[in-house]
């Protein structure tokens, strides 16, 4: 019997995700409430009466036209590798999805298959950063390459999907390169705190000890502390030259995610002698935890509040049974003049690894409107 795709309830969507080891928090039903400027829909793949896959679709309307870009960030939650080798290949899964989305008014579909193509361990990343002959991380030999994931991307191209470089508020593109700290050994057994510490570089271990000796205290915050977090987040944005999200965004994120699961999102606060010196947010779905936003003050940087707060989040992720502590996006540039290299060096100090996702892929449904959409984005 061919697979079918139809709208499902948020409850059925969440029940399906809860049965998985993990899924992206961007694919949880609650995320549609965070992205209020998009229209959200939960969809399910059915083999007969059984749900065998799910996805959160965000619809963004074209100006002056009742047509939409249908976007599945870091999704859908299906086994792409298995689907690509099953009966009918990826077409058996993606064709009914596209047909459903087209009936909803989609002129194009964008998705981000949750697949890792390549990995670079900490030693390889450090060597690449120090090599003047390399301009990007992608030019460095990978520690591990995933042939099954590469086969999926090859099949997507054959089916007419186009890989995208996500940027801009409309596309809401997710980073292609991320940084992971693995919290389990190769055989799946949990790592100990001692083992994780040993994997960090000397500077990270020294800074964690320095923060402890200085008396930095890390605690969990509540909804009432979001404003304090946002104050130093805005300070961080000004210092590091990026545009901060407004305070209501974080209030909405807290209410939506924790309304779905009371421990989905956490707020961490690092104080030194009563002064807030760093604050972060962490999101967890199953065995995957994400460091999503971070902030620190320019004052008292010497007490290393950022290292202390990261170490607390890592330990909490371990205690929750997570396999991955995800430090989210990095760029692949290795240009020593680029400020983003400093972010790579900060994250690589944890002893983790850089990972390259399969990226985001578009399928034009209405080619004329899709072309108009591309021109619209170029003018923004």
From TrEMBL:
Q: Which PROSITE patterns match?
A: FEMABX
Q: Which Pfam families match?
A: FemAB (PF02388)
Q: Which InterPro entries match?
A: Acyl_CoA_acyltransferase, FEMABX, PG_Glycine_Bridge_Synth
Query: Which keywords belong to this entry?
Result: Acyltransferase, Cell shape, Cell wall biogenesis/degradation, Peptidoglycan synthesis, Transferase
Its BP terms in the Gene Ontology are:
cell wall organization; peptidoglycan biosynthetic process; regulation of cell shape
GO terms (molecular function) for this protein are: aminoacyltransferase activity
Family, per entry: Belongs to the FemABX family.
List the protein's name: Aminoacyltransferase
Q: Which organism is it from?
A: Mumia zhuanghuii
